[in-house]
Write a structure and sequence with these properties.
Layout: E1 9-14, E2 25-30, H1 33-43, E3 48-52, E4 69-80, E5 86-102, E6 109-114, H2 135-147, H3 154-158, H4 162-172, H5 177-185, H6 189-213
Parallel strand pairs: 1-3
Antiparallel strand pairs: 1-6, 2-5, 3-4, 4-5, 5-6
Helix pairs in contact: 2-6, 4-6, 5-6
Length: 214
């Protein structure tokens, strides 16, 4: 996709503890009427929507405040079920920073967005990171996933490019909403790898502390 083709205003799906990264694809089950409307509108235009996390706020503000950074996605698969739900697959294109919320008199929310900090998400060039550099991270992640009861097809992941693998693991990880948001906002893959490592150390420390207390 070219820079000039990127929409300046996008509909957004504020979904808590759910993040997409560029070059990853996720399934979504759409059933709320406002988001059914959003997907219908998107399918009839550029097939793009933004995924962005709402902030945790005291008092459950309605509508909730949104984080500053999300990811633009393109609908790559669309199925309507007999009971009126939409099953879609959304592929992450690039991250965006929200400029302001706009009222287009729709039931769903829309944002004016800025992409300039994240144009490198569109690059097909691979960052120079070797799998050997990540063996410890993968080992620690695998241990954390197993402790949390998550099942990951690691052999399938190893067939993907390195950036796809790291982003997929960051997205699927049993990290907190805030930790996933930090990973989304890291400027590049190398920083994301280091941040995953930092977060994992806190989980390893927690397990050690818990074992010590017992």
């Amino acid at each position: 996709m070219k820079k000039e083709e990127l929409p300046k205003t996008i509909p957004v799906f504020p979904l808590s503890n759910f993040i997409i990264f560029p070059k990853t694809t996720v399934p979504l089950n759409i059933f709320e009427p406002r988001y059914i409307d959003m997907i219908n509108d998107s399918m009839s235009s550029n097939k793009m929507i933004g995924m962005i996390q709402p902030k945790n706020s005291v008092g459950e503000k309605i509508p909730p405040d949104l984080h500053d950074v999300g990811c633009l996605g393109k609908i790559t698969s669309f199925t309507e079920t007999e009971d009126g739900r939409f099953l879609i697959e959304l592929k992450g294109i690039l991250r965006f920073k929200k400029s302001k919320e706009v009222n287009l008199e729709k039931k769903y929310r829309s944002l004016e967005v800025e992409y300039s900090n994240y144009y490198h998400d569109l690059d097909n060039t691979k960052e120079e990171l070797k799998f050997s550099d990540l063996e410890l991270i993968f080992k620690d992640l695998k241990s954390l996933f197993e402790r949390k009861g998550f099942i990951i097809n690691w052999k399938a992941l190893e067939k993907q490019s390195l950036d796809e693998t790291i982003n997929a693991l960051a997205m699927a990880s049993p990290f907190t909403l805030e930790e996933k948001q930090v990973l989304l906002e890291t400027i590049n893959l190398d920083n994301r790898k280091n941040k995953i490592s930092e977060i994992l150390k806190t989980y390893t420390h927690d397990v050690f502390e818990n074992n010590t207390i017992q």
